[in-house]
Amino acid sequence: MEKKNTWETYNKTQLKAVDAFAKEYMDFLNKGKTERECVDIIVNMLEKEGYRELEAVRKEGGSLTAGDKVYAVCMNKAIAAFQIGKKPMEEGMNILGAHIDSPRLDVKQNPLYEEGGFAYLDTHYYGGVKKYQWVTIPLALHGVIVKKDGTTVELAIGEAEDDPVFFISDLLIHLAQEQLEKKASKVIEGEALDIIIGNKPILIDQKDAKDKEEKSLGKDAVKQGILRILEEYYGVEEEDFISAELEVVPAGKAREAGLDRSMILAYGQDDRVCAFTSLKAMLEVNAPVRTSCLLLTDKEEIGSVGATGMRSRFFENALAEVMNLAGEYSELALRRTLAASCMLSSDVSSAYDPSYASSFDKKNVAYLGGGIVFNKFTGSRGKSGSNDANAEYLAMLRDVFAKEKINFQTAELGKVDLGGGGTIAYILALYGMNVIDSGVAVLNMHAPHEATSKADVFEAKRGYVAFLKGAEM
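Below the sequence we write its predicted structure tokens.
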């Protein structure tokens, strides 16, 4: 059952390809730190390869035949893409599904306030985070502010070299005796994760001839200074926060890690590492036998809820439109298509960490450099909330990967009674299709900076290509 480290299987040409692919992936991470940013990038990449917007095809009265490529976007935060295969869709599709949301801090709807000479934005953390990891690191502000007239203002502050950054303060070690006696979950409370965005009071010109010096405005002068900047540079006022979606994320670019440059350290790799590799696989495969589908959703980190999450009808509705334009739609045909499909729920797995070895079963854990990961089941403790994939499906995937010499490993999230987690797999499995979790091992999962192996990222893309070409039950 022991397998070689993936790096050992590459020749010089492949090693160059690994590094080139990693650079492309890191660029994607740098430009796509929110769901909206990811969707913008993905749409541009799809259209460059000949994909057309599904709604535009429908309005033009067009039709779809084998080889045609279309995509649909949901509220700028989720996307589904299809390449029509040679076989009837009722015989099933090959689906790659991942999520493009990541743990972060969201700015509240009434966030701006002043306290002790600082201007703050009040936040609400999103997803599973260790709150103490988010203090005293450089933070950036990304998102949109939509004004009453419908005008959208896009923000990305803290990424350019000359941009200011933001931060959350922490109690100095000299006064932290009581703080350090608290449990890790209580050292930093959720309501303390407010970012500092200013410290300089607004200054106004005094018109009095006797006093021409600039003087501060008075009460909440620092807050007023921030509001003036928002008005001058972005044309927004305080009330516009009500209709804003602003995300606080770690500032800075993805970096190569290790003296050997074998790893990538970056924010948001859960699950954008699987989203990017799935996208690249989708773009690489042409003229598939079975219809190929790429499904990238939002809200997985908080239960796949809402209109842009996997629990919504977005995917089902988009598929119905595709089948209708292909002349294959009926309610029964839709149900048969879903049930006959095969899916890889492309999500990350926890990587073995020798510093915390007692949390893992060494025989059943993913290792950095071990290749793409299969998680037959996720869930917690007694497999609660899990999609437990069929043995027959896993055997078929083993055969597909073996033929293409894909390096893979199998894993569980951690020791049985320590906790667990979920993905979108069980939601797609509700249609009766074959689904298994398959993705990349991640060290520091859900931390502001996560680590992956370049080799695993490359193998994931290779594995997804093999799946789109060969999976069929």
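The chain has a mean pLDDT of 94.
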